[in-house]
């Protein structure tokens, strides 16, 4: 029979220490304290003390923790061990019972996670992937305004199609684009919930085979929100006025139009601390501006052929160090109304982004360049396989010719035709 351990007193238990090997190295000691067979006090070299109940459960040896000493005093540790021994004698495995309780607690937590909880976790997780830091704020703002009033406090496992309709019905026809964004965001969040076991895999915010059968297609009902743009025939007169304007803002706008660029590619975005065009991006010898991927909407590096006037504008700005911005406001990133304020002073009810539409309309109306050339000039993403093939070559020299023709039109207007035969710019007959 195994030797019965001496039943120690509380005072004797406090005196127990860690063990020391023959070569003087300290290690954890397990001291039987008696009273209940298998009850041990573990003492580490750091002085930490904890109770362990070592027992056979069927054919398995279990080491069951009973808490730290002296938080759990000797008498309580013996009582816990006796209760566990009784359960074992009844055929109950205490560890498996404990794990079952934890699983039940976890299931209860999963069952009560609300949409608002899931939304916050999802946005926090995805924020690292968003190219634009403002995207997280946009997600949070739209969902807070439209989704949370209806489903924010609901457990995600209970959300069904009727709840999604409660969110979308009031805005589907009046704010279609916003409604579709909200729908897409709810779909992603509920999909994430399904993957994590918070709800079933059926997604009530899914469009295909679900909401598509309930709502009219967004593309069929939304009123397209176009940026206010100048008609291309008014561009030459606009440029005459623009050239009279002094200051960096006028030159920045002139360069933006000549390169068909986006505002943040030229002046950056002060709201998120993103700089605009820098001197290191300009290759004067090759007359090419390389916009880095992080400043492009497409997330891909974009090469822009520079026409003669664009090069002249940059040279007039007195080139600086490679990492210095070309256009600044007292040495800092200009405000986001830097160019729009100039348009307002010029009494032009248009937007800077609208000039990209003006350029595209001019390309269609007055040139015979392939559509792919202007699309690449605008750095548009297109999934069409043919255009993708064009995109791989960048068509830099064709784009250089196009931008030179655009430059001539901006400053001199449409060339007069000397014969009855009209010839479109770019070599094609109109």
Estimate the helix proportion, in percent: 40-55%
- Global morphology: elongated
Topology as a string of helices (H) and strands (E): HEEEEEEHHHHHHHHHHHEEEHHHHHH
State Rg: 36 Å
Any low-confidence stretches, pLDDT <50, length ≥5? 417-423
Quaternary: single chain
Please work out how many helical segments DSSP would assign: 18
- Strand arrangement, major sheet: 3-4-5-6
How many structural units, i.e. domains? 3
Largest sheet: 4 strands, antiparallel
Q: What distance separates the N and C termini?
A: 108 Å
Broad CATH class of the largest domain: Mainly Alpha
Which structural class is indicated by helix and strand composition?
Answer: alpha+beta
Measured by DSSP, the beta-strand proportion falls in 5-15%
Examine the secondary-structure arrangement and name the CATH architecture of the largest domain.
Orthogonal Bundle
Please give a quick description of this structure:
By secondary structure, this protein is α+β, with helices and mostly antiparallel strands. The chain has three domains: 10-108, Double Stranded RNA Binding Domain; 115-221, Orthogonal Bundle (DNA polymerase, domain 1), CATH 1.10.150.130; 232-412, hpI Integrase, Chain A. It is built from 18 helices and nine strands.
Question: How would you portray this structure in words?
Answer:
The chain has 3 domains: 10-108, 2-Layer Sandwich (Double Stranded RNA Binding Domain), CATH 3.30.160; 115-221, Tyrosine recombinase, N-terminal domain (DNA polymerase, domain 1, Orthogonal Bundle); 232-412, hpI Integrase, Chain A (Orthogonal Bundle), CATH 1.10.443. It has helices at residues 10-15, 74-89, 94-112, 115-126, 134-146, 148-151, 161-168, 176-195, 218-221, 235-244, 248-259, 263-267, 308-316, 338-345, 354-366, 371-377, 385-393, 396-412, and strands at residues 19-20, 26-27, 29-32, 39-43, 49-57, 60-68, 282-283, 288-291, 302-305. It has 430 residues and is α+β, with helices and mostly antiparallel strands. Helix 11 (248-259) runs antiparallel to helix 13 (308-316). It starts with 9 loop residues before the first helix and ends in an 18-residue tail after the last helix. The protein has a 4-stranded antiparallel sheet with strand order 3-4-5-6, with helices on one face. Helix content is 45%, strand content 10%. The radius of gyration is 36 Å and the shape is elongated. A hairpin with a 2-residue loop joins strand 5 (49-57) and strand 6.
